[in-house]
């Protein structure tokens, strides 16, 4: 073999190897699934209606529907008079497959005589009624902003009648960074609870009494869906699951295990959920915010950030698609074999042309 032919052969082989390597890198880039770092590709459409008017509503209904998902779903959050309802449809425009109602009933003071951090029966006194007594006289204020990737973010500021409790309900069409350890997903709404309370019993602790009603199964989980998928850190969750059909559907109320109490991070404990003996399907729960026993205060400010959300079929269907065109499902072995064949043909063509020129 001549020196020229040998050099053309090496060039051809190098070109073939580069082509196959490029194909491999392309496939590797297309192969990973949509994990938390790529999850902003998930998008939903959010619309809302206010009652009695859009400009000064006392009640709101928010609808969120998936966009472009292979398995589209939808959920709705309704608020009025200190109560929220969450409804989920596994299929958009289909029937409700999981739902619950949640009412902020009372602010309570409790004396931790057992020193177990839990608001036990017998040491709890109602400090301020909430629900339809504590809310409903003042209008809800809506604001609209955009996330870093262009999705709409809706916020609804809900004041109590005495304005000592402020609720801020936030929902986005895409992922919204909250902190270095938390991102608000499009499959939920964040409910920031801001409480300013003057103690009737200084030295006691403060709790938020919550009532939940549903016909579905209720379970208290040590870890929330967001925590398991690295969208939050150190959360617990109350899961409401309808498993009467072949495919179970889950909605949830989740909360961080810490809250800001007078500017300091304090543990949040939970009592319940306990089914109400006189009302089947109704559950009682208290989120307790212990105040520092070393510095008993007459006034306290508590800020806590629970969420209302769904375990979304649409998100799972998007997560399982290759990054890139969500409608593309490549046959990886066939694609690689085809590129290798093309590379071989290129190499053979170069070698054959070199031989002809050498004759």
Structural class based on helices, strands and sheet pairing? alpha+beta
Helical content stands at 10-25%
Give the CA-CA distance, first to last residue.
12 Å
Overall radius of gyration = 28 Å
**Low-pLDDT ranges:** 3-36, 323-339, 349-353
User: DSSP strand (E) fraction?
Assistant: 35-45%
Order of helices and strands: HEEEEEEHEEEEEEEEHEEEEEEEEHH
Inertia-based shape: globular
Number of beta-strand segments: 22
Main beta sheet strand tally, sense and closure: 11 strands, antiparallel
What is the overall pLDDT average?
82
How many DSSP helices?
Answer: 5
Number of domains: 2
Account of the 3D structure:
The protein starts with a helix and ends with a helix. Helices cover 19% and strands 42% of the residues. The chain is an alpha+beta fold and 359 residues long. Helix 1 packs antiparallel against helix 5. The model is unreliable at 3-36, 323-339 and 349-353 (pLDDT under 50). The chain has 5 helices and 22 strands. It is globular. Strands 7, 8, 9, 12, 14, 15, 16, 17, 18, 21 and 22 form an 11-stranded antiparallel β-sheet that branches. The chain folds into 2 domains: 3-31 and 330-358; 44-319.
